[in-house]
Amino acid sequence: MLAGGHADLVTVLLEGGGLVVTGKTDAGRFDPGATTLHVTDAARRPAPSSPAYGFLGVPGGSPIHVIPQAFRPDVLWAGWNTEAVPRGALAGDAVDLALRSARGPGRVEVYLFGADGPERVFSSHDSAVRTTRVAVPTHAHANWVFTAPGVYELEFQATATAASGVPLSSPPTRYVIAVGPRTAEPTATTLRVDGTGTGVELASAVTGGPEHLDGGVPRGWVEFVRHTPAGDRVAGHVALTDGSGTLSLPEDAEALAFTARFVPAVGDLVAGSRSPAVANPAAPPGAVVTGVRDRYAPGETIAATALVSPERPDHTVSWWTRSNGTTTARDGDRTLGLTASGDLDGAELGFDLRDPRGEVVGSARPVALSVTAVQPTTPPSPKPTGTTPAPVAPTSTVPAPRAAPAETAAAETCVPTAVTRPAEPREVEVVTDGHFDYGPVVEGGALSARVKDDRQGAPVHRDPGGYVFHLDDTARATPPAGSGLDFLGSGPVWMVPLTQRSGIPWLGWNTQHPSVLSGVSGDVTMTLENVEGPGELAVYGQDPFGGVGERYFGTATGFPRSTIIPVGQSGVHVHAVWAFTEPGAYAVTFSFGASVGGRQTSAKSTLAFHVGPGEPRAAPTGPPVVEQVGRTSDGRECALPGGGGGLASTGLDGPVVAGLVVAAVLLIPLGFLLTSAATLAAARRRR
Questions:
Q1: In the Cβ-directed half-sphere of 589, how many Cα atoms lie within 13 Å?
Q2: Per the structure, how many domains does the chain have?
Q3: For residue 482, what are the contacts with CB-CB under 8 A and spacing of at least 6?
């Protein structure tokens, strides 16, 4: 059962020259055929009333379940992925993904939220919206809407053309998705036992289960059990075909009866069941207890049946339980209904067979009872991020320089003046496409920042200073009026979108590096320390119906400066919209803070962006440099006394530096005196 976290449900692989569709989480690959996906009621919300969402087919305000395009820690985050397919292996570096079939109690609609509204991708209702072309490599997420609770069955297939021209097609892959409260649908199992002259034939049929799963026909196995005076033994099992299974056995002179037990293939959604005991036509004399399950929860009913061979209608049955040497009579006839309670855990249940005079003429072998409280099960999911911390003001303010005293009133004063310039450009890679995640790693017991680059399939972690993320006019958009994006102003903006698009670098963040999972205690705090650039930055999520979701960080009005990223067992992977309000070069400085080995540690680094036209390599890949230079009162350059011009600022002004120098000079003789005293004391100890 997969109910939370990041999952690329439809992951396309190229294996052995053929296409394969499988599933992938941050913990690794999973088999869709053996996994139930659960969309919990945390995803439940009212349908929108906007005509733009009329394709959902339900009135506004109707309850629906939505897997959102933007990450939420309490809901499954579902998408698709072609990153493992090598570039150049497929013609046009493209794969067609098709929703071949969809069954369920309601509609399934998958769409992206674009600048102009919803962009439909897959539909269970509209045959014209069944296939989408996906570039290689791509990692995308979307909104998945289910209009009614229940069990859904989706089948996806990938097709492409190999670079050699050979057409490729994956086998269809089935996905089972439970929407809403998770309950295993009840089933009923029947058994017929027929003598064949040389043995017996056991024929079982199973009905029930979810209406839309496997066409309403339960899948799984039937286990046939022999009941003998000495104990119960499994005689064999068969896989169900169209809900039925048959087992032939040689003549059995020991079994008093047989029972069929259904074992479902999808135990999360389909309940097991067992048939009543059916007598063996060739049964020997004896008595057995049947119908007792392996375990019960307190309050459930223990339903047992007394099977007697040969049948003796004039005899009666006396039920009893035995625990710690004490036997307690229980009311019942050939069947017993007993409320499970903690004092029955480990007790034995049996019965005596009495003749018409009340004499005991036989006893059944007792069976052990198990009564245990059901432990609550919570699907794994990242923990909530909690409240957003209050905005943190940048701490990189450079102290104002202090004027040097003039030597004479008539002399022209040369004043130390702070001048800020961009960091010198160095060798960087300008990226305009592909999937990247920014995040911490642990190196040498401390945090460092790295960019995880997924463009070649196998991820690599690199220094953030080695990239410039270029958003050209492919990323340009103008938010429509009434979109709720007033904080971006009224003009065009340049956006890293919520889902991957060709021609735009898709940047997110995560806490999934193995060194973080093993080395960090608690959460990671990601703080926006400073933004150098011509405009504002806003990083935010989106509501499934176009509204603004969580505001992560930014310099725009109303945005915090930090966000909490959980770590947990598998880390968290987040994508959001990065919006820049003006073209130009930006240096965006972040810090990551966390506890490593019981000690708080942090790492600071800068991401470089170039927005719009111009030379991307000119974007600063580090924080700006502040230098102290000489300036006269009218702004002309001059030489500072002692050649002080051109030194990069360390954040300390001149008098402070001078004070430190004086202190250092004074400490030299003090250090000499302390060293001499220590040497003298040691010499005295040696004597």
A1: 17
A2: 5
A3: none
